[in-house]
Structures are given as C-alpha cells and as structure tokens.
Amino acid sequence: MQVLHKIAAGVNQFHSIKGAFPSLSDQILSKRLTELVREELIHKHTIREKAPKSVHYIISDKGIELLKIIDDLHKWGIKWY
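Predicted structure:
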C-alpha cells in the first residue's frame, strides 16, 4: 500500500515512484503497478507514446476510498495498541 500512498501524494511517474523505493526492483515495481491497475485502484495514462514514452499513474476513486479505510485502521491501531 506504500506505492498507492505515494501515487495519492502526487508521485505518479515510474522513475519517481522507483526513487521513493530504491530497494524495490524495476520488475517488482512494474508488477505491483500492474496489479493496482488491474484492481482499479489506480489508472495508467500514457502521455506520450513515442520515445521517451511517458506514463503517469493516477489514483482512482476506489483507491482513495481504500486509503481512507487503511488510514482509519492505522489511527485505530495507534489508539488501542
């Protein structure tokens, strides 16, 4: 969910997301982004098709709602544990 949080915060290009998680391999990050798109938690927008290709990831309404739930659970955990 850390990747989803970064995208929600406006970090929306692959290289920027990768910079936030330097120990994460390109392959694993790509897989994670694909899963988030498949689950409709983020949208993938191709800005430029020609090299250098530019793709932006934007959080969906579904993703925003999920993050609200996760944040509420986090607050609950802090309060009670």
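Summary: Residues 11 and 17 are 6 Å apart (CA to CA).
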